[in-house]
Specification:
Elements: H1 3-7, H2 41-94, E1 108-110, E2 113-114, E3 117-118, E4 121-127, E5 141-149, E6 158-164, E7 176-181, E8 184-192, E9 197-198, E10 211-218, E11 228-235, H3 249-252
Antiparallel strand pairs: 1-4, 2-3, 4-5, 5-6, 6-7, 8-9, 8-10, 10-11
Length: about 250
């Protein structure tokens, strides 16, 4: 037996050749990998343009979001200042001391305007046990006044409360000044006689208004922007002046 013939006979076939027909079959459909290549100039410019557009849009959205957040914070601060100011005025009004016949305890309302905005002043007696001059004797009935005032270095006025707890005859001038709220650009007080609204109330020892309407406006920044208005009513039922039956309190809070 010829060893060379047996080693190359019919039993030995290549992996891609059919033993019967002699055809050659492809052993796989995978093409050889192409050689890597870089970006073209057009593709690079397109990528740079898209990136720039996305970055600019993101910056605009972030600035708008920051501006909206600052505006919301200023409005919240202004609303808090308005609530504090209104709470102080209404608390004093609702605890008002109203002895008829005492001229020094009568309510007095002065209508005024500053820089084209209401800047009224209201003065009356109220009952409070809050210490004003802890080192001195003082009464729980004290004369209070609310008005607007602006300091030399302040861009906008503040709501000031002046309190005199001594009840001296005559009342002490000046009293103790306290800042109630900042950036109060308008303070308007009107009085309901039982028949009509009036802007001033003369110091009458025999009568009080039936209703006092307090309106104020607080700015959210030093430029006078983001203004928050607020209006509330204080009722004073009594025999001297009465409210008509057809009076609508909701309509009065304009």
């Amino acid at each position: 037996m010829n060893p060379q013939h047996s080693s190359s006979g019919s039993g030995a076939h290549s992996a891609d050749e059919s033993p019967r027909s002699g055809r050659r079959w492809r052993t796989g459909g995978v093409r050889p990998p192409r050689a890597p290549h870089g970006l073209t100039l057009v593709e690079l410019l397109a990528a740079i343009t898209i990136t720039a557009i996305i970055a600019a849009s993101t910056g605009v959205l972030m600035r708008q979001g920051s501006a909206a957040r600052r505006q919301a914070e200023r409005e919240l601060e202004a609303r808090a200042e308005a609530r504090a100011a209104m709470r102080s005025v209404l608390t004093a009004l609702r605890n008002a001391y109203r002895p008829f016949g005492h001229q020094d305890q009568a309510m007095e309302g002065v209508d005024d305007v500053a820089e084209g905005r209401p800047a009224d002043q209201v003065t009356f007696a109220t009952i409070s046990r809050r210490a004003i001059r802890p080192s001195e004797p003082e009464s729980d009935v004290r004369r209070v006044a609310f008005f607007l005032s602006r300091g030399d270095n302040e861009p906008l006025p503040s709501l000031i409360r002046r309190t005199d707890p001594t009840r001296n005859e005559p009342p002490d001038e000046g009293g103790v000044l306290e800042r109630i709220a900042h950036r109060v650009i308008a303070f308007d007080v009107s009085y309901y006689t039982g028949l009509e609204w009036v802007d001033e109330w003369p110091a009458r020892p025999d009568a009080w208004p039936a209703i006092v309407r307090v309106s104020l406006a607080v700015a959210g920044d030093d430029q006078g922007g983001h203004v928050v208005p607020m209006t509330r009513l204080a009722h004073f039922p009594g025999k001297a002046l009465t409210v008509p039956e057809n009076f609508n309190p909701a309509a009065a809070q304009r």
